[in-house]
Amino acid sequence: MKFVCRKCETFMLFEKLESPAEASLGITFECPECGSRFSMVTNPGETSMVQALGVKLGGRTEPAGPMELTRETLKDPSVAATAASATPQSTAGVSAGNMGGEAAGKCPFSSMISGMQQPGAKMEWSREALERMEQVPSFVKPMLQSSVENYAHSNGITLITPAVMEASKNAPTDMAWAPEAEKRLENIPSFVRPMARKEIERIARDRGLTSVTASLMDEAKEKFMSMGI
Amino acid sequence: MAEEKDLKTVLSNMKYKDDAKVQEQIVDQLLQVKMRMGRITRKILVMSGKGGVGKSMTTVNLALAFARAGHKVGLLDIDLNGPCVPAMLGLKGQHFALTPEGAVPPMGPLGIKVASMEFLLKPDAPVRWKGPMELSPVWLGLQEMSVIREFLADILWGELDYLFTDLPPGAAADKPPVLAGYLPELDGAVIVTIPSEVATQVVKKSIAYARDLGIRVLGLVENMSGTVCHRCGAEEPLFSGDAEKIAREMDVPFLGRVPFDRALGAAADRGEPLLDPTLPSVRHFDAIAERLTQALEFKKLMASLL
To answer: pLDDT higher for B182 or B114?
Structure first.
């Protein structure tokens, strides 16, 4: 949450944190331009929400102890759990600053999910599709987005609509299989055969093919062997 | 007096600064998760559609099967409100040892490292939080999310070949996305069911839900697929359904069946899990573990068998 000084058109800065009453936080912000200050006071529910994040407003002076939030928030922890006074291994030197401005300045979870985003290939999303995506928990969005966009990309679709999202869930297989390829697939144990079939069809689609042949099987095999998996 | 600009225009000209250092701390928390989890080769969820299908029993015995095969295994019990893994592994009454590097997990049979809410609670005490549980389910969700994050980030798991995570039963819909969010490199989920009509209908929802979340379904385990006569050892069906049929319909690998075995249940109740690989139930789990390994490494299979 940030506050904006409308007069100076700048973010107000966090100044200090107080506890004006039990289960209440008083957070004071100041405009760096005009010096205006105001304090936000939280109710018990809001205070708990902030605490449940496991963060200290204004930054930590020392690293969190192991399982600190869990131990401190349990009403009735075991003696062994409360007796701790340990400091965990610090992640010092690996802070937001080291993640690059992009990761630090956007969603706090962006560092975690950035690796899941597909670079390039910008897809257009219809308003209805975006609205549908909004209903998905934020954690999951990048994965779902990536999955739908991969499906769209594989099928030459450039505009993602709710229908495309639906189709991506269980992409139907319209791939033709040459008899020899089909026969070779039978070498794979039956219970993992559907996974193998899907993987080969995915490779075929990536190459713009509409059928699976023995030579594609050779290529797939070579690819998996070269991956050293 | 100049007309005030709309907020969108004002914001477009401003540079955000994390002066309260909230984002920095959250990123640090996530890096801590990445650091710990980066030393674990395979991360597998065990989930079910319905409660009472033997999910924890399956998780425990799968973990034991992989440990028996010589792997380094961890087991994370995130059934926060009904943790039962420690009891099944004979670890009731144990606690985390808190060190400057993190929390040392108690070690169960075959060297399995175990983390559970149970290790933070007094005997028989329920989980009760200091926050406004009666006021805000949103707060409770956030709190549990942070607890799970601490289990991933603060436990000294060390280097492991496999980490199995036992999810809460039934429709605890918030946990899989939380884990998928923290662990984008998750290998997938094993789904446990029993062959009753009711359970198999619900398991379809679980499979669809996992897929919606982008979690790969590694396979389906049919628990309580029959009963073993404790006198003659013969197996008889308990229900009339067939989870293998559901697996075919839903296009997921069928990993195997585990008949109900009184000896297995009694051993779990005693906290002395069955380890003898010649016992029928242990053999079932070893076979499931072998299939699960193949499901995890199906690309390797393709490289050698295609």
So the answer is: B114
Judge whether B276 and B282 are in contact, CB under 8 Å: yes
> CB contact, 8 Å: B130 with chain A?
yes
Give residue B16's pLDDT.
Answer: 78
Residues 6 or more apart in contact with residue A39 via CB below 8 angstroms: A18, A26, A27, A28, A29
Q: What residue type is B164 in one-letter code?
A: F
Q: Measure CB to CB from residue B303 to each of A77, A113, A225 and give the nearest one.
A: A225
Q: What is the mean pLDDT of residues B162-179?
A: 80
- Predicted ipTM? 0.80
Q: Do B299 and A112 touch (CB under 8 A)?
A: no
pTM here?
Answer: 0.73
Phi and psi at residue B253, in whole multiples of 5°?
-60, 135
A3 residue type, one letter = F
Strand, coil or helix: what is B284?
A: helix
Mean pLDDT, chain B, as a whole number?
Answer: 88
Nearest CA in chain A to B217: A195
Answer yes or no: are the C-beta atoms of B32 and B154 closer than 8 Å. yes
d(CA A60, CA A96) in angstroms, rounded, equals: 14
- Per residue in A105-144, pLDDT (tens digit) is 333 333 333 333 333 446 788 888 888 887 776 655 665 7
pLDDT of residue B267: 94
* Residue B186 CA: distances (Å) to CA of B42, B53, B117, B151: 7, 23, 22, 16
SS (H, E, C) chain A: CCCEECCCCEECEEEEEEEEECCEEEEEEECCCCCCEEEEECCHHHHHHHHHCCCCCCCCCCCCCCCHHHHHHECCECHHHHCCCCCCCCCCCCCHHHHHHHHHHCCCCHHHHHHHCCCCCCCEECHHHHHHHHCCCCCCHHHHHHHHHHHHHHCCCCEECHHHHHHHHCCCCCCEECHHHHHHHCCCCHHHHHHHHHHHHHHHHHCCCCEECHHHHHHHHHHHHHCCC
Residue among A105, A63, A109 at smallest CA distance from B145 = A109
Among A117, A122, A163, A120, residue whose Cα is nearest residue A143: A117
Looking at per-residue pLDDT, the higher value among B306 and A69 belongs to A69
3-state secondary structure of B182: helix
Distance to chain B for A130, nearest Cα, Å: 16
Give the B window 11-70 contacts with A, CB below 8 Å: 11, 13-35
